[in-house]
């Protein structure tokens, strides 16, 4: 006599797998559509690599994005890769003085 619980579990598993497979197919179709949009944008003169970066950045919360930009600027500055204006240099000096005073 077959175990009814085993059959039920097997059917649940099969249903989950089939749902995942359908979603994977939809995801592949969406990815193709997205690639076509990037190709179309490239054809009109936009840079898809930069567009992908903009999409990624727009997903980040504003305060988190600002913090990441600050850290990036700090690293680039430390490596001498960031051009800084005199006003920025003066602002950095003010920040350094504030940090020193706080210590």
Characterization of this structure:
This protein is mainly alpha-helical and 103 residues long. It has two domains: 1-45; 60-103. It has four helices and no strands. The chain is elongated. 0% of the residues are buried. The mean pLDDT is 87.
- Secondary-structure element order, as H and E? HHHH
Shape: elongated
Uncertain spans? none
> So how many helices?
4
Q: How much beta, percentage-wise?
A: under 5%
The chain-level mean pLDDT equals 87
Report the end-to-end length measured between terminal Cα atoms: 78 Å
Helix coverage percent of residues?
over 70%
Main sheet specs: none
Radius of gyration: 26 Å
Number of domains: 2
Summing up helix and strand content along with how strands pair, one would put the structural category as: mainly alpha
Number of strands: 0
């Amino acid at each position: 006599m077959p175990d009814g619980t085993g059959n039920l579990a097997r059917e649940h598993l099969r249903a989950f797998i089939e749902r995942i497979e359908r979603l994977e197919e939809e995801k592949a179709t969406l990815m193709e559509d997205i690639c076509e949009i990037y190709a179309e944008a490239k054809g009109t003169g936009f840079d898809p690599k930069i567009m992908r970066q903009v999409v990624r950045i727009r997903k980040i919360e504003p305060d988190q994005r600002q913090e990441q930009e600050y850290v990036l600027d700090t690293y680039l500055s430390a490596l001498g890769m960031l051009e800084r204006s005199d006003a920025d240099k003066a602002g950095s000096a003010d920040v350094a003085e504030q940090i020193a005073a706080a210590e």
